[in-house]
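User: I want to check something. If I give you two sequences, will you return the structure for each one separately, not as a complex?

Assistant: Yes, each is folded on its own. Here is the first sequence with its structure:
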Amino acid sequence: METKEQTPIEKAESIESLCLVNHIDSGFPRWLIEAAFVCYLLQAVVNYAPLMHWMDDAHLSWVRGIVQTFGAVVMYVGLMRGMKSLYRPFTVWWWIVIALNLLGFMTELVPALMYRVGLPVAVSLMLVYVPLGSAILYNYRGRLRQVGVWMVLYILISSIIPVVSFLLVGPESGLANLSMEIPTIAVIVIYAWVQRRVLI
């Protein structure tokens, strides 16, 4: 039996249908994704420098670690599971991202570990988030592409702006440094929202 050869237009439409991804099924209940989203929102709140410094002084950095890690790991596992059926799932990259986030959580729990591996973990996250986010935005369209775009922006803004802020303004934070605080808080909220949209 002969198979009909596709026309160039049909081929283009077929490729586009593979690339256009607005929803992926993680297999997670909705409440778990919503809980992860709420943790991201709490992460944005505790990312406000005065509150972050207060938590460090009160020895509550482990609370910040739980908030930051739970939201990210749930979303990333959901994205990894949902992307397994796609033509480029990037499973190995997702496992590396998840492992680095869990390692980051360990550095929050053990201050001595923070001084030894905190900086390498932060740099490693940047070296993984940027290529993974870039690969997602290059290979996919729709809402999944937005996840890739904001993954790159999230890690760059979260990593670079605090350094620039410290160099330009010094150790001052809060209202004295509001122009630097707003982008780091806003990018977390937007990044959480685009992940939620593709998983729900």
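And separately, the second sequence with its own structure:
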Amino acid sequence: MNKKFIRLSWIVLPFFFCTSCEYELDKINYVEIEKPQSVDYKVQINAPTDGTGEYVIKYSLIKFDLELPENIYELYFRLYRGNDDNYDSFYVTRANPYASLSWFNPGEYTLKCDISLGSTNTGSLADISGYERYGKTFEWKIILQQNPNPTLNLRYERLTDTTFKLSWDKPDPDYGEIDYYRISDWWYDVLDTTTETSYVVTLSQWDNKEYYVRAYFKESYLSPLESYVYINNYLN
């Protein structure tokens, strides 16, 4: 009888052991994977496009329109020219959504940006180790022209014996959006600010004076553009 019990134990115990292990493993490692919540975000180049959909960067500045979740503070970009083994990288933040490409030669490039929005929160080993992520990759074709910075080309015309009209050119909107213009005299005393591209000044009959116009941009990273003109009323 003991022999029969021993033989029966060799049959039942392995079955019980395997069943028990399978149950415990399933109980420990089983995690229900849920689809991550959708997140609204946008990364878009603020520049015109040509007929083929390539973005034309007229100046050394590349600007972005960004709509990102609060937990994303900066974006990592890669700029390729040729094969994927050769690229330069730069960062862009929500506070300063621009990059200067002044060190690149004019030509055609591929720009890529990878956004990782975080883990899937599944609790799996891949999630904990960082392999289980969700996000999106953006890719653009750009043409870098590297045009010189625009100038205001300040000039004047006589209206009466003592009044003159200052006029200047509005900078290319692809360079930056104008906030306002500041007009000052040769002592840099501010006379006025305006959003127009002209301003009338009054001089005495024998007055000679320099006038300055400085353009300020809504993009805080752009330095103001300045132009000046000298009016010699005695010679006019």
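Because they were folded independently, the notes below concern the second chain alone. Confidence is low (pLDDT under 50) at residues 15-36, 120-132. Helices lie at 2-29, 125-129.
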